[in-house]
Design brief:
Layout lengths: L2 E11 L3 H12 L6 E14 L2 E15 L1
Pfam families: Dodecin
Protein name: Dodecin domain-containing protein
Organism: Fodinibius salsisoli
């Protein structure tokens, strides 16, 4: 039987939502092993001078507990 745990994280990037997601997963995997999936719960941006400054994502990351 597998036990799956869910971790909620926030990540950002000046490039894109995809980059913010990839950076969040990469950083989480430094301390969490057996990551199985991630679900983007929310996307947002910060704006400076009328242009997008930062892309932000809220992720629910699932990993298997051994």
């Amino acid at each position: 039987m597998s036990v799956i745990k869910v971790l909620e994280i926030m990540s950002d990037s000046p490039e894109s939502w995809e980059d913010a997601t990839a950076k969040g997963i990469k950083k989480a995997s430094e301390t969490v092993s057996n990551i199985k999936s991630a679900n983007v719960q929310n996307q947002s941006v910060t704006v400076s001078g009328g242009t997008v400054d930062t892309y932000r994502v809220n992720l629910k990351v699932t990993f298997e507990v051994s």
